[in-house]
Amino acid sequence: VRILSNYIRETEGLQDEKIISMAFEVFSMGKYDEVILHFLLENFNGLTKDMRDIWKAGKSFDMDTGRMAKRLVIQMLFTLHFIEERDFIFEDYVKAGASEEVMLKYLSQCAFEYYIKDMIFHEKIFQYMIQYGKKEEESHLCRLALIKYYGEHREKLGEDEESLLLHYVEQFLEKHIFLNCFMEYRAKIPALEGFQRKTIIEYKSGEKSKVYIHYLIDRETRKEKKYEVEEMHPIIEGIYSKEFLLFFGETMEYYITEEIEGKEGITTKKEKIENRPMESRSSERRFDILNNMAVSQSLQDEKGFFKGMERYGKMDYLVLSLFKGK
After folding, report:
1. Residue 203 in contact with residue 256, Cβ under 8 Å?
2. H or E element in which residue 203 lies
3. In the 8-state DSSP scheme, what is residue 281?
4. Cβ-based neighbour number of residue 218 at 10 Å
5. What are the beta bridge partners of residue 215?
6. Per-residue model confidence as pLDDT tens digits over 38-70
7. Is the CB of residue 42 less than 8 Å from the CB of residue 59?
8. CB-CB contact of 36 with 61 (8 Å)
9. Which residues contact 114 (CB under 8 A, 6 or more apart)?
10. Consecutive H or E run containing 6
11. Where are the domains of the chain?
């Protein structure tokens, strides 16, 4: 150790693959000093887990670990292999003076891993996403990740951040993109109320696949119990969606299949959704009137049922009169 340490000091840390290899071998045995550790922090490239171990050792000695953090972040982006300490390594890289381009790419990948693959990230990552949220270069997935994360953690949301996220949701709605996580903001965005009547099935995949939903809606008028199949189309990279309208008392069973390169790969387990009882609405929408009539019929509420029929009849009359007038 002493000979190696003296050599590194005398050559002023000159890069030499043999010396780097020897230094790492000494480090792996736990027999190293600060000179050897500093040399590795500046020069070592290898497996992500080995670089992580050197980074952790450097942090324990309160050494400058910024260059190693940078190499680790870039390597994780290249290999898409995220280690447990990834968030703290990224923070270390940012403090050392991160490249904005690398930062945005890393945050976009974090958003993908979080939203599509349900990977857990430290709150600090979402704070960085907020910080860079006003940049046009930020990906749609970054904005979706923020909408989802802070929708589930409203107590961590300040007024400025909430205003930004509401703006994001409205932007998506203007592009006719809706996801279930948007409903956490319905108290502030009236346009979301209309989606409460709909059942939106979402599916997430990291592959460029063809996705199909196989569904069976259980209706009293339906005699044949046969699954229907429809393709689910991507609304954003990696996110597939299909919209259904269920009346009160109707249930839907479904499962999803995914084709990768023409071959069926994944089949999800069967799920079941039921349109549960809801508070009576005073809305004049046809669906709400029919739905409330179904609720009244289920509860044997004749008065409510016939009142609904009367409202529906008036609506039909007004619509017919309007078209005749044209």
Report:
1. yes
2. strand 199-204
3. P
4. 14
5. 228, 254
6. 999 999 999 999 999 999 999 999 999 999 999
7. no
8. no
9. 120, 121, 145, 148, 149
10. helix 2-10
11. 2-192, 198-274, 286-325
Look up residue 206 and give its two tokens: 């990291």
Task: List Cα–Cα distances, 101 to 17, 74, 91, 105, 263, in angstroms.
Answer: 30, 11, 15, 6, 36
Measured CA to CA, the distance from residue 80 to residue 58 in angstroms comes to 24
Answer for the pair 280, 292: CB distance below 8 angstroms, yes or no: yes
* Residues whose CB is less than 8 angstroms from the CB of residue 193 and which lie 6 or more positions away in sequence, other chains included: 186
Q: Does domain 198-274 have CATH number 2.60.40?
A: yes
DSSP letter for each residue of 228-262: EEEEEEEEETTEEEEEE---TT-EEEEEEEEEETT
For residue 91, give Cα distances in angstroms to 51, 86, 102, 210, 238. 16, 9, 13, 37, 27
Phi-psi region of 176 (alpha: psi -120 to 50; beta: other; left: phi over 0): left
pLDDT in tens, 149-163: 999 998 988 888 999
- The answer, as to whether pTM is greater than 0.90, is no
- Nearby residues of 259 by Cβ (< 8 Å), 6 or more positions away: 209, 210, 211, 212, 265
CA distances from 48 to 5, 88, 93 (A): 24, 14, 15
Mean pLDDT score, 69-87: 95
CA atoms of 21 and 19, how far apart (whole Å): 5
- Residues 138/125, Cβ–Cβ less than 8 Å: no
